[in-house]
Write a structure and sequence with these properties.
The protein is an alpha/beta fold and 299 residues long. Helices cover 34% and strands 18% of the residues. The longest helix is centred in the first third of the chain and has 21 residues, at 88-108. It is globular, with a radius of gyration of 18 Å.
Length: 299
């Protein structure tokens, strides 16, 4: 029986990974400080076999919880681009120092592999479409910079200490349990919430920006494929679909009569994202199964 630890396991993506691990027979420990401001609620598995620890990875001693752990899924982070612009210190503290602490505890306890939840936002505006994992980072905000620095700490701990890790760079994740709170909620959840409330969907800028939207079940599957990979000691992979849609198209898919409202552009956001997933499919045998048009109204 395997033992896994999930940081940020009460949030959107983390809670789905917890449920999947339990279904695979893992004993799971979750470390979460329950502070993510974008979450209206936090999720606790009702499947059993999960220990929940209320701690802050950047401040509290969590070392005892890593004893006999086989796999670490590191999702705890200060996320969302716009809020981190006004609060960079907390962002770097959790996303960089917190990651180093997780890796140190993993090293001390001989964890088999760490799966790091990264972000596609670090590709920035200088790299051509589609984004490939070997492109240089061009960070436009504290969030993407801090997540890229977390990747570098993973690389260092592999090169220097032999801690195996796989970095997964997510592209616009959506699905059940997605954050809905505030004006900076991910766009699919935000639009669906606005439509349910009878409000106009707020489109930033002209709405022709394009994003590669990835369904939550595909993201969970990517984490499991990364965990199961035996030949990959350390590498970086994109988790997207290889297809993108404009923000205007997203509002049309929701097919509501509430209409739209255009608001001013926001700083430090890219015009287009699109994942090149060739290496992900080849190396860890992961393939996306879900398309936005079919899934957006399914939950």
């Amino acid at each position: 029986m395997y033992k896994s630890l999930v940081t940020g396991g009460c949030g959107f993506i983390g809670s789905h990974i917890v449920d999947k691990l339990v279904s695979l027979g893992h004993v799971v420990t979750v470390i979460d400080d329950l502070s993510a401001p974008e979450n209206e609620k936090f999720y606790f598995s009702d499947l059993g076999g999960v220990e929940y620890v209320h701690k802050d990875i950047s401040k509290d001693d969590c070392s005892s919880h890593f004893k006999d752990v086989d796999y670490v899924f590191h999702l705890a982070a200060r996320s969302r681009i716009q809020p981190t612009i006004g609060s960079p210190e907390a962002c770097f503290s959790v996303n960089v120092l917190g990651t180093q602490r997780i890796l140190e505890w993993s090293k001390i306890n001989s964890v088999k592999k760490l799966i790091y939840s990264g972000t596609s936002s670090l590709y920035g505006s200088q790299n051509p479409i589609p984004f490939t994992p070997n492109m240089p980072a061009y960070c436009l905000n504290p969030y993407s910079m801090s997540k890229w620095m977390g990747e570098q700490v993973c690389k260092l701990y592999f090169q220097l200490y032999g801690v195996e890790s796989i970095v997964l760079r997510y592209f616009n994740v959506y699905g059940p349990r997605e954050p809905l709170k505030g004006r900076y909620a991910p766009v699919v959840g935000l639009f669906k919430r606005q439509a349910r409330e009878g409000k106009k969907m707020t489109i930033v800028g002209d709405g022709l920006q394009r994003r590669d939207f990835t369904y939550i079940d595909d993201v969970v599957d990517a984490n499991i494929c990364a965990m199961k990979s035996r030949d990959i000691k350390h590498n970086i992979y994109n988790v997207g679909t290889g297809k993108n849609y404009s923000i205007v198209e997203v509002t049309e898919m929701i097919n509501d009569n509430c209409g739209v409202e255009f608001i001013k552009e926001r700083p430090a956001e890219v015009r287009e994202t699109l994942a090149d997933i060739e290496s992900t499919m080849r190396d860890i045998a992961w393939f996306p199964r879900f398309d936005l048009r079919k899934m957006i109204n399914s939950y």
